Automatic annotation (TrEMBL):
InterPro entries in UniProt: AraC-bd (IPR003313), AraC_XylS_family_regulators (IPR050204), Homeodomain-like_sf (IPR009057), HTH-like (IPR037923), HTH_AraC (IPR018060)
Residues covered by the HTH araC/xylS-type domain: 179-275
Gene Ontology terms, MF aspect: DNA-binding transcription factor activity; sequence-specific DNA binding
Keywords: DNA-binding, Transcription, Transcription regulation
Protein known as: Helix-turn-helix transcriptional regulator
Pfam families with a match to the protein in the record: AraC_binding, HTH_18
Species of the source: Paenibacillus oceani
Amino acid sequence: MSNRRRQFISSEATSGNIPLRLYNMGLIQQKKIIRLEGFPVLHLFVNHTGSGQFETLHDGRLWTLSDNQACILPARVPHTYYPLPDTVWKHGFVTITGPSVNDLLETMNLPLMETIPLQSTESIWKLFESLFQLVRDNPPEQEWNVSALLYELLLEVLKQSLLHHEASTRTKSSSGAIKMAARMIREHYAEPILLAEYAQSLGYTVQHLNRLFKQAYGVTMHQYLDDIRFEKSLQLLSLDMSVQDIASALGMEANYFIRAFKRVHGITPGQYKAQYVSGQE
């Protein structure tokens, strides 16, 4: 839907049997609105740019509307809404009446008078544009098609809301898995760690879990494990332990430990022990 202002569109149904009827719609740059008696029909708002705040006047309920968000305001609820400070707020709105609107909202279990986070608004704006084009000339014969499109619009809001919830749940689950992986590495760095089996137990491939881990920690799980081991190795080198025993305590082969240590520190563990540890005695 283009950014230019849309004039309000009104559509009067020719039959009381039509379940959903369009009252008006638009895409506007919003200024402060106060409605002491509320609005005669239900409002669906979808944010376009900027941010706004809503407040119900009878109980002081507050919620905001920002990127990828919608909200539904029932009929005849006293309210006000306005742009947040230092923002130009533009939103799309559709107002809906008809004998089935309340039952439909109850069936869909869409929340009222609160922010509805959406996974995306692209498909919703396409439906806005289709609806505008359909009723632009107010042809009476289009009433049933308008009703069907209003139903599709509400259904798409529900769909995008559920998709957002699922994505949010996956993100929380992934975050928990990543924290568990980091803890497992810290607590069991000296043991053989089969990262592929661990990832599989969490329902991930090791490649996918590695990508998530790197996004969170900046390194792969293998790199994180090596970092833990080399940090611990510096402590062990200060003790009266051979390089072989230190490697074993870290869960590493001695030859690999020596090569990897030199790659990180530029000298072998034995040289480090001779230069830094012996010099402190």
